[in-house]
Amino acid sequence: MKLYTIASGSSGNCVCINNATTCFLVDAGITAKRIESGLNAAGVGLQDLDAVLVTHEHIDHVRGIEVITKKHAVPIYGTPETLKELARNAKNAAEMQKLFHYVMPGDVFYVNDVEVNTFPISHDAGNPIGYTFTSHGHKIGMATDLGCYDENIIGKLTGSDILYLEANYDLNMLMAGGYPYRLKLRIAGEHGHLSNDMSAELVTQLLHEQLKHVVIAHMSKENNYAELAYETIRQAVQQNWRWNRTAPVVMVANRDIPTEPVYTNGGEDE
Question: The pTM is what?
Answer without folding.
Answer: 0.96
